[in-house]
Amino acid sequence: MNRVRRLKIYVLGQRDYPEALITLPEHLVADLPDLLDRSRALNPAVRIDAVVATIWRLGSYRLGQNLLRGIRVRVSDTTGGTTS
User: Fold this and answer.
1) Phi then psi for 67, rounded to 5 degrees?
2) E strand or H helix at 1, and its extent?
3) What is the rounded CA–CA span in Å between residue 36 and residue 80?
């Protein structure tokens, strides 16, 4: 897979009406091709959507655990360590 510059995600409501368009910048998604390649090397039958779902599930779980413990989301968590 080629380098990923950004991801555009549509948040769809109950009737598949787009409620929001989210763009994830390169510094957040640049490692996606490597994760896909390494996942497929370990299990060639794994689909791309399964790897992305796993990334989402693990990230959602971790964020949920942090929120339960009162750990706030920081700007530096989303910008690769910089606030500019």
Assistant:
1) -65, -35
2) none
3) 21
Separation of alpha carbons 76 and 83, rounded Å:
6
Query: For residue 37, which amino acid is it?
Result: D
Provide the token pair at 27.
Answer: 């510094």
The model's pLDDT over 7-42, given as tens digits with 9 standing for 90+, comes to 999 999 999 999 999 999 998 899 999 999 999 999
Residue spans of the domains in the chain: they are 1-30, 31-74
pTM of the model: 0.71
pLDDT digits (tens, 9 = 90+) for 43-70: 999 999 999 999 999 999 999 999 999 9
Non-local (6+) Cβ contacts of 22 within 8 A are 8, 9, 10, 11
